[in-house]
Amino acid sequence: MQLPTSTGWRSTYWKLRRRGAFDFPVLSVAAAAHFGSDGAVTEARIVLGAVASRPVAAPAAAATLAGHPLSDASIGRAAELAAQPSRPMDNTDFHLTWRKRVTKTFVEYALQELRGDDMREVRRRVARQLL
């Protein structure tokens, strides 16, 4: 099987976990966006993991990005919408309210990375954080 070319698409995956090494996620965000020649998003997808009993798509959040460049305002708006369906289960020692709140932050990280921001330092900080 061959995958279609990904011309114009960028994607990223962010995973929050207890330890910096291999560990199951307590939150994950997968985001992809197709960019037009003018730099505006033509289509986007955002999917949350570990915040429900199955992956949760955030189509309303992704739809708000279409037709616009990834500005701080559009990222903030999309992250707010993406966090709404987040319903973390009580399956870790993390507080549920905190996990819901950090969903928005991780969606922002993912979209900033899609925009082209250098997120390496943020990734290092998050991965080495004792939560």
Strand and helix map with partners:
Layout: E1 9-16, E2 27-35, E3 41-49, E4 56-57, H1 59-65, H2 72-83, H3 96-115, H4 120-128
Antiparallel strand pairs: 1-2, 2-3, 3-4
Helix pairs in contact: 1-2, 2-3
What labels would you give this structure?
globular, 131 residues, Enolase-like, domain 1, alpha+beta, 4 helices
Instruction: Write down how many β-strands occur, each being a DSSP E stretch of 2 or more residues.
Output: 4
- What would the principal axes of the Cα set say about the shape? globular
- Overall tally of domains: 1
Low-confidence stretches: none
What string, H for helix and E for strand, traces the elements in order? EEEEHHHH
The helicity comes to 25-40%
Number of helices: 4
Mean pLDDT: 85
- Helix-strand category: alpha+beta
Gap from first CA to last CA: 41 Å
- Our estimate of the beta-strand percent is 15-25%
Tell me the CATH superfamily.
Answer: CO dehydrogenase flavoprotein, C-terminal domain
Write down the Rg. Answer: 15 Å
Spatial arrangement of strands, main beta sheet: 1-2-3-4
Largest sheet: 4 strands, antiparallel
Do you know the CATH topology?
A: Enolase-like, domain 1
What's this, in brief?
The protein has 131 residues and is α+β, with helices and mostly antiparallel strands. It has four helices and four strands, in the order ββββαααα.
Characterize the structure shown:
With 131 residues, the chain is α+β, with helices and mostly antiparallel strands. The chain has one domain: CO dehydrogenase flavoprotein, C-terminal domain (Enolase-like, domain 1, 2-Layer Sandwich). Helix content is 37%, strand content 21%. Strand 2 and strand 3 form a beta hairpin. The longest helix is centred in the last third of the chain and has 20 residues. The model has no long low-confidence stretch (mean pLDDT 85).
